[in-house]
Structure to design on (261 residues):
């Protein structure tokens, strides 16, 4: 299994089979152009993209959400929940099926690379605690071809998260994972209209902006004028709003958003 896969059920089960990296415990690793296997892992991947991955990659590439999806994404549906599942399209017409962003010098979208690329060689598994809090566990995923483990640099999971700028990725991704967990807990499978709504709000954020403007949706919700303005002006605010909105329209959750009374 590729360790660049997003933490879906299969990945969580795979991670649970590995020894846990306890808080404060360290692992030895470094990845840089002098490592003999440099770039070896940036090909032929099943690289799941979360909504925040898409937002950051698009920002890096300067592409609209429509163009990014058309050029770089393969879309499927999760068989259990019906949620859209997006994967980065590899260059299958080139031998080895490289990632479209890998170059001789390394990752050409490094500041916007997906969370899974940042997390490796760790795996992160999450579960929801009794008060809805996210409990995380880390594992070292030592793939046989990876020579980074021969390098003389030590990290704890906290060091690695900081170094890879992962906190923001994880906090956005966890919000999306809560929606998926909600669907699983209710054994709810989205119908096609609901799946389209998730795709629109979570991934096609330009079209979601048009939808919000054209339908007057924000005026029917209990949001301050400041939040409404920020949702239309700022993509990250819009994505955060999208998670709240999907929770409300799919499951009636009123965590951070409710209808006007
Ligand atoms: S996005 Fe960058 S780090 Fe991730 S697989 Fe592609 S080239 Fe490698
Ligand atoms: S295989 Fe390991 S060391 Fe080699 S490029 Fe990939 S992450 Fe870096």
């Amino acid at each position: 299994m590729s360790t660049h896969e997003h933490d879906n059920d299969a990945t969580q089960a795979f991670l649970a089979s590995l020894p846990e990296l306890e808080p404060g415990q360290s692992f030895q690793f470094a990845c840089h152009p002098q490592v003999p296997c440099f770039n070896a892992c940036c090909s032929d991947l099943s690289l799941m993209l979360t909504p925040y991955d898409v937002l950051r990659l698009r920002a890096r590439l300067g592409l609209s959400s429509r163009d990014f999806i058309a050029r770089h994404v393969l879309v499927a549906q999760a068989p259990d929940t019906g949620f859209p599942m997006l994967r980065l399209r590899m260059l299958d017409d080139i031998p080895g099926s490289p990632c479209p962003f890998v170059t001789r010098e390394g990752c050409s979208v490094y500041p916007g690379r997906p969370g899974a690329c940042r997390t490796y060689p760790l795996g992160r598994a999450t579960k929801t605690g009794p008060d809805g809090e996210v409990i995380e566990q880390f594992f070292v995923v030592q793939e046989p071809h990876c020579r980074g483990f021969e390098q003389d640099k030590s990290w704890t999971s906290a060091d690695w998260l900081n170094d890879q700028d992962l906190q923001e990725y994880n906090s956005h991704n966890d919000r999306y994972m809560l929606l998926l967990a909600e669907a699983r807990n209710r054994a709810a499978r989205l119908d096609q209209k609901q799946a389209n709504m998730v795709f629109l709000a979570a991934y096609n954020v330009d079209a979601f902006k048009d939808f919000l403007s054209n339908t007057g949706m924000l005026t029917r919700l209990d949001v301050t004028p400041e939040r409404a303005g920020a949702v239309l002006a700022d993509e990250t605010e819009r994505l955060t709003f999208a998670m709240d909105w999907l929770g409300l329209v799919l499951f009636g959750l009123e965590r951070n958003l409710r209808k006007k009374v």
In short: Residues 42, 45, 99, 101-102, 107, 109, 113-114, 117 surround iron/sulfur cluster (ligand 1) (CB under 6 Å).
